[in-house]
Structures are given as C-alpha cells and as structure tokens.
Design goal:
Helix content of chain B: 55-70%
Strand order of the largest sheet of chain B: 1-2
Oligomer: heterodimer
Radius of gyration of chain A: 25 Å
Largest interface: A-B, 107 and 109 residues
Structural class of chain B: mainly alpha
Order of helices and strands of chain B: HEEHHHEHHHHHHHH
CATH superfamily of the largest domain in chain B: Cytochrome Bc1 Complex, Chain C
Strand content of chain B: under 5%
Distance between the termini of chain A: 37 Å
Shape of chain B: flat
Strand content of chain A: under 5%
Order of helices and strands of chain A: HHHEHHHHHHHH
Number of strands of chain B: 3
Structural class of chain A: mainly alpha
Amino acid sequence: MDWHQLWTIVSLPDNIPIVGMLFIIPFFTWYGLRQAFANDRLLERLEADKDLAKTHHRKAQPFQKGWAREVAVWPFLLRMEFLAAVIVTIILMVWSITLDAPLEEPANPSLTMNPSKAPWYFLGLQEMLVYFDPWIAGVLMPTLIIIGLIVIPYIDENPLGNGYYTYKQRRFAIWTFIFGFIILWCSMIVIGTLIRGPGWMWFWPGMTWDHNRLIFEINRDLHEIVGITSQPWIGIFGGVVVGGFVTVAGYACHRIIVATEFTRKILDRMSLLQYAILQGLLIIMLALPVKIAARLLFRIKYVWVTPWFNV
Amino acid sequence: MADTNRTDEAKKAAPTGANGSGNGARTVLGVRIDPQEVKKKALIDLNAVKEPTKTEVYKSIFRVKHDETARSRTLGVLSNVFLHLHPAKVNRDAVRYNFTWGMGGISFYLFWVLTWTGVLLMFYYHPTKVQAFRDILYLEHDVPFGKLLRNMHRWAAHAMVLTVQLHMFRVFLTGSYKKPRQFNWSVGVILLVLTLLLSFTGYLLPDDQLGFWAVTVGTNMARATPMLGHEGPFGPQMGMTPFNDVRFALLGGSIVDANALLRAYIWHCIAIPGFAATFMIVHFWRVRKDGGISGPAPVMLEREIKPVRR
C-alpha cells in the first residue's frame, strides 16, 4: 500500500472536484431520494384515502390553515439568494487562498506528459477510448449524450412527478438517469482521474504509479476467438453479433418498459417515434457497460471489424 | 428709469423689515440676509441627512418606499432592473433550500464571478506563444493578488461545472422538465455543453504542459470525426487530410500552436460567453414564462392522469 502515491493523486489541486464529487454526488442523491420517499409515503396515504386526497394540501411540507400559500420574494427569497452568494464567495476565497491553481512547465510538444489527461469532466470520455475507437468515444458518444439529454422531455410521456420529488411514480426514469449520470458519467470520471496512471494503465488506489510497468495482455478481436480469418466473413460475423446485441438489448429494454401495468399505460401514450428513439438511446447506453465487460473480462478489442470502421 | 425705482424701493424696504422683526437681518450689497431664514433652510438639509429616504434624490433613484407593506415589497422587486426577473411572490415551500438546492442560482453567480475575475485576468494576459506563459508567471509572482485572482478563476470554473451538473440532476429528480418546461430543459442542456466548452477552452490559455496536452488529447478526438476528420470512418474517402479537416478548423493548424492559443482565447473570452449569456437570457426568461419555478408542486395521483390528446 503506497499511501504517499494515494495522497499525491488525491491532494492534487485539480483533483479536488473529483474527490469532492465522491461525497457530493452520493449526498445529493440521498438528499433528493429522501424527499422522494417522503412524497411516496404521502402518495400512498392519498391513494388509500379518497377524502383525504380532496382536502390534503398534497405536499410533504407542513401546511396550516391561515398560512399564505405564497410569500414575498423580497425578503424571503432574496435573502436566501444573498446568503448563498455570501457563502459561495467565502468558500471560493478560502479555496483560492489555500490551494494554488496548477501550473506545469511551459508547453513542450516534444515532451509528452505521461499520463496526459483531458480536463477532469472529459475523463469519462477519455476512459471510453479504452473500449471504443475515438470516433465513437470522442465524437459519436458525446453527440448522443447531448441529443439524448435534449430529447428527454420529449420522450418521457409519464405525466406524474411534475414538480415534486418522487421515486414510486418514476422508477424507470430515475433508474435510467442514475445509471447514465452516476454509474456511467461520474464513475468513469472517477476512474479516469484516480485509477488511470502512466500509459493509461489501471492502478488500484494505493498502487505505485510505476512508469516502467508493462502489462502483457493480448487483446483479440471477437472473430479471432471464433476462428474466422478472412473478409467479408469477418465483417458479416461482426454485423451479426452487433445485430444480436441490439436484438437482445432491445428485447430486455422492452421487457422493462412493459414490466408493470403502470409502465404499460405510459407506453400506450407514446408514439412510435418516441418509442424508437427511447429504445435506440437505451440500447446504445447499454452497449457501453457490455463493451467494458467484454474488454476487461474477456480481453476483446473489437467485435465488429470492417475495412472502414471497427466497433 | 425702472431700475432706479426698484433700487429705491429695496432701500426703503430693507431697513423697515430689519427693524420690524428685530432679528438682525441686514442688506449686504443689495441682498437681504436673514440669519433665521438661513438657519431654517439649513435645518431642512440637515434633517434630510437624518432621513435620506425622504429626499427627492432617494425617491428619484428607488421610486419605492422601503417598508414592510406588501405593496412596497412587490414594487421593490418589480421596479428594480436587477431583480425584475424574479416574480413578486413565490410558492412558500420553494424558498426552502431542500427543493432547489440553490444550484441554478449558484451556477449563475459563479458565472458572474468568472466574468469578473476573467476580465481582470485579461488585463494581464497576451494570447501569444511568447508571452502567455510569462504572463501567468507575472500574475503569480508580481501582480498584487494576481495569484488569488487566477486561483479563484480556476476553482470557480471547476465549481461551476459541478453545480451545473447538480442543477440538472435536481431538475431531473423533480421532473421539472415536464410540460410546459420541455424546451427550457433543452436550453439548459445547451448551457451545460457551453459550460464544459468554456472550461475546456480556458484550459489551454496558461500555455503550460497541462493545458497543452489536455487540449492535444481533446482535439485529437476530432481527427476521428466520421466524414469530417482525416482518421475517422469515411474521412479519407471525403478527401480529409490533417490540413483541411475539422481538427484543423478548431486549432487553426495541424498542431496545437500559436493559432490554437489565439482561437482558444477568442472562443473563451468572447464567443462562448456571448452564446452562454444569450442562452441564459432565454433560460431565465422561459423559467418565468413557463410558470415560474416548478414546485414543490402538489403531488398528482395515478388515477388522475388524463388521457393523452393527439
């Protein structure tokens, strides 16, 4: 256990946001879900008692007769905003006085940094370079992430949970987002920052970043394992495998979409186009952990090799 | 002749007035001076210092009384240009920290911090290969509070990337992107991308090893853009070379050099902040137009779902 190495990585000023993220993201996940569960308990009471549903003010927050439903922005909201600005300023001041922004030697194209890392918020994408070719990890995936985020409101046909925390009414949406945001985006950033060392090799926390380390591993393409040696059979085989994955993943996603009576009701509300976009995004999102597992567990580099592109 | 008459009258009136009141008013060079009058007027000005809110100057600036009546509170927000994006009143539970986490507002505040520290940094920075790195050294060692300035710019940038993501997380968990706020969520995603791009373009500016290699790694991915990059699928078939593909356009060359530095500088200081500010205007405007902050809204029951209209 090389505590010094661990400390060197963790205490790097530029890594503070990632170390902070290790605590902040779980905290806010808990903080949001706690309120969601509080609302879910209220929902259960209201579902069970029709009379209560008519008279209750339908919030987990307490409310008494005679209280105003709205409060004046000045002073009740503006003082909170002012307070928040003061607190943020104090945090920034302390942070800026105690920790210095990193400055390396002058840029030198002939001296490659090892490891040379992108800014921390792009390390998830850089980590994906291990599993996919750059045109997927660096171009296609970011584009799809942006498009996928933009279309969320247009494919989510569940009218419940509009403006309040709830888990019960939006299980599928919340799990999808947590999977994409925390499991894929955040944890890949953490891996890229804290785990990946020289040569972008995997160093467990506490391992020394040995610049002379060599890993002898043979990454094979899937068709080599199967024993196909010549095109066009390689390409056809890969296409069949990828097509098989799409079919299986699409079927699995569909089973989740129609899992309960409620989700079936939501599916009925969706147009064919909405369903197709949802399925497409889900399948591509699932392809990521599948390819990661194939690469890390079975040392498979490509599953689909063609003369023009490799997947 | 008229002038003579008036002087005569003044001469006659002055002593009479003085004698009548007996308070020592005199006429100096034809101007009547009454100490009591002057004192009375001076007191008016002095009282104005005691109660500045009653002066015309104050009223002309603020126009609204600063008291605790509902009317004054409302007008205080609505008639102030910096506060007018706020509604006069909000949902009583919306001011609690636990619903919004305050992340959107904090992101906006950090954007302001970054704008101000950024403008101050621009006074000391030249986007040229010769001077960029030296300017950072100068900032760190010679400029008063230069190090603090640079540190604050960098940490505020990191913090903003985090708060923007947390804001998005909160908006998702509360379902605030649902009707009628769908479009504003999309605008928010654009703002997220612009935040990341702002941070990324700023990374190169110190012109040190860290920024140089980070941007090299980042822009190398652009080589692999399908059709538009010289190493991407169908790129060579489209006639792409290292000297005409999308990476060349980003860097202003085939390597990260002086042109890339200048381009990063202009994107970072002018173009992207301009786009971000524009989208922010739309974002905040739409928050109000779409009915203000989404909640905490009364919960809706499953049996209350209305059939979809097509």
